[in-house]
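Researcher: We're teaching a course module on how sequence relates to structure. For the next exercise, students receive a sequence and then see the predicted structure as tokens, so they can try to spot secondary structure elements on their own. Here is the exercise chain.
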Amino acid sequence: MNKKILLSSIASLAILSFNANAQDETKINSVDVWETEVVSSSLNLGKDSIETKQADHLSDLLRGLPGVDVGGSHSMNNKIIIRGIKDEDINITVDGAKQPNVDMFHHQSTLKINPDILKKVNIEVGANSVVHGELGGSIEFETKDGKDFLENGEKVGAIASTKYNSNDSVGASLATYGKITDNSDFFIYYDHIENENWKTGDGTKEKGREGTIKNLLLKYGIDLDDTQRISFSYDRLEDEGDYHPRPNLSTAVNEAINVARGSQANLIHPTEYIRNTYTLKHTVDKGENLLVNSSLYFNEMDLTRHESNSNGRGDVFNAVVENKGFNTKAQSSIDYGNTLNTFTYGLSYDVQTSEVTTDGDAYGDDEEAKTFALFIEDAIDFNNGLVLTPGIRATKYKLDGVVADVSEKEITYSLAAEYAVTDSFSLLASHTTLFKGAPMQEVFASYRTRTSTQNSNIESETGYNNEVGFKYIKDNVLGADNIGILTKYYVTKINDDIGFDDTYQMVNLGDTKTKGIEASFAYNLNDFNALFTYSRMDSEVLYTGEALEQETGDTFTLGLNYQATPEVGLSWQSIFVKDENDVKDIEKEGYHVHDFAVKYTPKAVKGLKVIAGIDNIFDKAYASHSSFQGDLRTYGDATDYEPGRNFKVTLSYKF
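Model: And here is the predicted structure for the students to work with:
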């Protein structure tokens, strides 16, 4: 039997990475690691296609993945949506450090991360195993290490980079890396971006965007031996600017609301967001025998707004969310006769707290949520093409909250199957049950002090996610070196959806159901690669008969990459989204947007790299279907439009 660590069956599409042949040719004499590999359970985009995008926001990195969207055009408002489920219900980690899943403020996002520092993003689209928990799946961000940059014989090095966006920002970064001893390495990175007010595709100047984003990453790692590594990282991100009170709404509606509430139309709230993440990580890699990843972490998010009492709650409003914890995940394989059992098992413990002050005085009560979970699953390979993967997860959850006190224990389970009909064609199916305890209250909510009673009858959210599909991977077909096809159909049911009633009390609203299709086709020939994807979702809030507000229209993407010469690489991406009219009182207009980029790495100047591109080539006025859309009461069109045409240039030099 082929004894190996079994990864997710769908993740085997990693062999279809873009520019695979081109990378082999161009990396013989240099190490090009300033890139991000995106691996999804719905496809694998590959490293170079992401790097050439010059990702400034998470939307640049993730939008276009089947089943995934990123709403929000403002730096304070990037929300990741998976199959209509918000990122508060997705398990998100950075180097193993779990990110808070509290709703910081309904007009902005909670998660903030600089895509420039990412080495890899691993996305589970939909909850299809018990390993991560949550309702909508998981996203694992992994940052770069110092040793990733070192070429043979190098002890130390540096990379300087500068960026220009015509619509409308400039930035620069400096990174240094190297070895302190033969078995230890460091990485120091600093990034600085200045954002200005930009224009939408119809020429509208969107105000309230001026700000500064700074990111500092410090990492130090020690290879204890050939199989073990321990590392420490500190990641600090600051976003400070003169922002609208409601960053997810248009300038026109922000101004209309300001006037209606007795303020000046151009009211701006000086805002400062700071995230500090400390992580101690230990890895053991003994190949097929044992693979372990463990993380001890502390994460703090601090949001301050100078409101000048415009909301009647003081001048300086501050919220702090902290979470700390530990998690470990192990994988090992054991042969039993003609079967190979690959076990994935581990535990996680997380404590999350929130506190809010106005002018230094407490604003509402503090909250605390604790989660402890144990999980195990076994991928059983019967050596006849069939792999069955049963799993079980035990979760203990306790909430000491403003609107509810909860203490619960829940068992969830999963069962997945893969059957290789031929060496190239496999059938896939899975069933996973879901659990999510009652959440903490929205941290920045103005109604935080208005809740008078707790709901002792609140029920946690439960449900299931079912998936069926197939994958086909074949060499030397249709004139290609290889092709890959992946198609999935899913149904997700969430029971006892939690929300708030008119008295700001947390209540169970009812059930929701989402079903959809995700498909991708990859074609690789020499230095040319093409990727076509399609996704469709239909949702229903069963207690109203309406669609989820986050429902998106049918989405098609086309990505083309061509390594014209060893020095020049070209890329093109198109996204086509159909109209979406199922959401009550909102007509989401369809759109098509196209981007082009070229990467130049001259052999004559070793270490120099130039990336130039155009985003939104045809200057379309459009909004993501996961962003706010439509009229807001009587204030007018609040649609959160994306930037118009943008010319981008990045220059970097590796010393």
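Model: If you want an answer key for the exercise: The longest helix spans residues 251-260. The radius of gyration is 24 Å.
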